[in-house]
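Internal tracking record. Fields below are filled automatically when a chain is submitted to the structure queue. Please do not edit lines marked as system-generated. If the sequence contains nonstandard residues, flag them in the REMARKS field before resubmitting.
Queue: standard
Priority: normal
Entity type: single polypeptide chain
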Amino acid sequence: MKDRLAHAQQLLAFEAGYRAGGIVVAGMDEVGRGPLAGNVVTACVVMPEEPLLIWVDDSKKLSESRREKVYEEIMAHALYVGIGQVDPAGIDEINILEATRRAMRMAAESVPADVFLIDAVRGLGLKGIEIPLIRGDAQSYSIAAASIVAKVTRDRQMINLDAQYPEYGFARNKGYGTQEHIAALKKYGPCPIHRRSFIGNFI
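SYSTEM-GENERATED OUTPUT FOLLOWS
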């Protein structure tokens, strides 16, 4: 637990300069740029310095059960949480990068921050200072929190969609191109939540 506390403190310390003088800092991240199905989902989160949630980390480093627990902690303590998403039709229309950018703008609309720490994406035109950070979810407490919110939000969507389209295994693969998923695509063809611009090589 000491290691977890030290890591969380390190993530928060990274933001100290941005938070100085009462500046409101938001973290932004996305999930779902690579899957063959489902929405791209973004989150914009403003976290208080206290309480320090010691399990906040890059969502990819946490187990599914741990992410769920930390998600609930974040939602209980966050000052602001915004969610943005673009569906498969929108992704096909404008491409995944522009869909991600659109979803990020949507997520930020309801978050009154002075500084937005953004995982890699730049030039969103937000009402605040934008600071893109490569692998930001491994450096920033706020971006890490956003990565968890986005990941759990999208995973829950895919689990729910699995009940509608059970043949594709969405509860297990979350829409990513696993061997099971690709085999189902070849057997059954695409369903309404597949990204047509992503699946041309698989059907």
